[in-house]
Amino acid sequence: MYTIYWPAIIKQQHSEELIYLASDRDWLEFCCLQPHIDGSQDKLLDSAGVTFDIVIQPLQKFNSTPSSATADLPQLIISQRPIDLVSFIHYVREHAVLNGHCCSAKLVFSDIKQGIETVAYLESN
């Protein structure tokens, strides 16, 4: 299993909004509070620039094993179709516009980590 470098961003297939996750705790909270996660094309992009597919496992019958509490959480699998920097810049610009920030065309960064920091900044203002 690959280590996820936090913070990270979720890019949902059917939304231009980006979801900022500061830590693995935010990821778990997101999973618990978003039971409608489609997951079919949703992706998580970590600070190292690695893209993960969010994979939803089919619901299993309830069993009382200790691990059953997390058995239905989405799994993160390294994507065969990663998000490249140019696409991510476009996503961040769209996200900025959705959140009422003007001049989004001026948003530029040289790596994924800077882009994630930009999203965090946009979320805090």
Task: Describe the 3D structure.
This protein has 125 residues and is an alpha+beta fold. Helices cover 30% and strands 17% of the residues. A 5-stranded antiparallel sheet has the order 2-1-3-4-5. The longest helix is centred in the C-terminal third of the chain and has 14 residues, at 85-98. The protein starts with 7 loop residues before the first strand and ends with a helix.
Q: What letter string, H or E per element, gives the SSE order?
A: EEHEEEHH
* Main sheet makeup: 5 strands, antiparallel
What proportion strand?
15-25%
The unreliable regions are none
Q: How many DSSP E strands? A: 5
State the shape: globular
Helical residues, percent: 25-40%
Distance between the termini: 35 Å
Spatial extent as radius of gyration:
15 Å
Order of neighbouring strands in the sheet with most strands? 2-1-3-4-5
- Overall structural class, as computed from helix and strand content, comes to alpha+beta
- Average of pLDDT: 85
The helix tally amounts to: 3
